[in-house]
Amino acid sequence: MNKHLLFILLCISLCTSTAFSQIEGSLDLSFEPVLGADGPIHTVAIQPDGKIMIGGGFFNYDGVQRVSIARVNTDGKLDASFDPGEGILWGLNVNTIAVQPDGKIIIAGTFTNYNNNYSERIARLLPDGTFDTSFDAVKGVLGDVNTVAIQDDGKILIGGRIEKYAGVVRKNIVRVNSDGSLDESFNIGTGANSGTSASLVNNIKVQKDGKIMIVGSFQNYNGTKRAGIARLNPDGSLDTSFDPGAGASSEVTSVSVMDNGQYLITGYFNSYGGVGRPRAARLNNDGSVDETFVPEINSTAHLFISKNHVQSDGKVILSGQGYFSRLNSDGTVDMTYNGGVIGVNERVMSFDVQSDNKVVIGGWFTQYNSTPRNRIARLNGEPASSVEDAIQTHFDFFPNPSKGFFTVKSDEIISEISISNMIGQRVYHEEINSNEQEIYTSNLPKGMYSLIVTINGKMKSRLMLVD
What we know:
It is a single chain. The model is unreliable at about 1-20 and about 385-390 (pLDDT under 50). The radius of gyration is 24 Å and the shape is globular. Strands 1, 35, 36, 37, 38 and 39 form a six-stranded mixed β-sheet that branches. Strands 12, 13, 14 and 15 form a four-stranded antiparallel β-sheet that branches. Strands 2-3-6 form a three-stranded antiparallel β-sheet, with no helix packed on it. The chain is built from two helices and 39 strands. The protein is mainly beta. It folds into two domains: about 5-10 and about 390-465, Macroglobulin (MG2) domain (Immunoglobulin-like, Sandwich); about 25-380, 7 Propeller (Methylamine Dehydrogenase, Chain H).
């Protein structure tokens, strides 16, 4: 067995280093905005072509005027082919974006005008950013919009702090037809409310069976107690088979519908159904709490969790106030995701997951893993095939932490070994043809690294600590 002296390749180019940077949650250096956004990003939506729609409270992107809305190319630079003109009136926000199957774009928030076209809190745009006059929302929403969801039939669900739509009372949730007219067949009764103006709906998800999950800050739905969460039938009536009991102790910001019929909710709450659950809870299909998921979230340090996404393997990606992390399926912190480190220096308000499992995040932050990124960044993800491949691609390494050297060992032949630091730079790479290799780490600074081992053409990463 040969011993190889490990040295740091500090002069290696960032483009080359990212090709070998496989640690999930690390910064993707191939996504590099020029200046990024000069104000907060509230919402991120990835189009089928990979381009990224962003909305928020910014005035410029990459130094070009883009008031509250812009589209970004896959490399992080501004997409000049999407031109919103004057955009949103300054001081008003785009809170949510949804892309239709035909490429048209629904935007909603606190605005009343888009590029000198009057539109109350919601508008539809053509793919090039021009105002779609076939969607009539002139009388639109009285209130503010936090979320929209597009149904398979083209109808659009709207949630927020809403009093009326097109002059008709609709408390915090409404459904409109594809032309923007009110869908009167969606009967919510007294809606989602608490009897005060503080009630609101933050997130809506449409299930495959047509039922609708809503979360927010409310105490009742059409007169029936539902604290922060409710499930609706397709016609807007309450689905009483979902009973959250005491529900969430405070505002719920986000809900994900899982493939197994469960739900993952996040927000400001500390308990659900009387059971302690700081900022996140997993629910059974009937609304009861899943006691096998106990989130490791410091509720003192992190006032709220803004959004969640459940992966196919049950792991959960979460964003929030000074927070971006991934939990294992039991709620423990996943130490393989960015080394368990919270890379952002400020709040992450939204994120979306690409088809290759990379994650685009937006918010108030100005750096990730100490690398400057103004309000937007993309993080490396697990290769799409890795859930199955990870089971078949196994290796061990020891000792960990490493004190001068470590050994990598597998039952199968290892073809390559790489090591990357936590900002994605490759510091070691070697092609081998052995099932065991010893590597010196004496020249590496102390800290966390990603060890990437290739076996049978499949790459698998593990976290290692150099002490």
